[in-house]
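Technical note accompanying the year-one report. For the benefit of new consortium partners, we illustrate the data format agreed upon in the data management plan: each record pairs a sequence with a structure-token string. No post-processing was applied to the example shown here.
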Amino acid sequence: MGAIMALLPAADKDNFLTDLGAAPAYPIPVVAPPPTGLVARELRFRGFGPFHLTVPTAACLGLSGPSGAGKTLLLRSLADLDPHEGTVTLDGTAQHALPGPAWRRQVGLLPADTLWWHDHVGPHFEPRRDTDGHASREPPGSGPSTTDSCAQALISVPSRSSAFSDSGNSVAGWIADLGFEPDVLDWPVSRLSAGERQRLGILRLLSRRPRCLLLDEPTANLDPDSTARVERLITDYRQSERVPVLWVGHSREQLARVADTRLHLEAGKLQGVDS
């Protein structure tokens, strides 16, 4: 053995010993896999922070706090809608590596007040051209009726989880799950109540199959029955699609139901909430 080692170049001695089962003279670096889920580090925005936040894959993090504490601003920074500092990643992909619209197709934000820019509900669900150049699959209003064309376009969107799409939880199924009739896509926006707008805003968000959900008080305008429907739908989507969910709300009872972990934001600090 000694004679063989003497003949080997120094750079090859460790490889030789390793092949024989001996430990090398230097440590072998271990490369950690990229973090999964939604991860924010040193996040700062408008005088708030730094915040460190992790929402694991398929988990729900509930966030509470008084008005003005920065909860909505935190969501907007995670969605890359407001200027901020720090790093944000989703399943190892950095926010800064993607254009804003591309990031928001993966990290879906449900604002407290949803926006409606067409006269009827259906066209809001049709694919359209994004600011980063992604073209719509079909022109608005094409097909025999708004309901048929929109429902077909939505149902054809591929899901990351075949189990979820095969279980009957298509967009058509979600419409029923949220307490609507199929013709809701033909309704004028002007007839929608605040609660109906909120439920349809959730449907519109899920129809895009985001890989992460940021929810700003998603049931604030809903009655108990509609609240229960939304909680079930989002939980089903989270578990089947295995997406991280950050759920902002004021009801401690609700957050205890829907969230795996809870945090409270107040006076610029994030603190854990006991079960």
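Partners are asked to follow this layout when depositing records. Residues 16-20, 129-168 have pLDDT under 50 and may be disordered.
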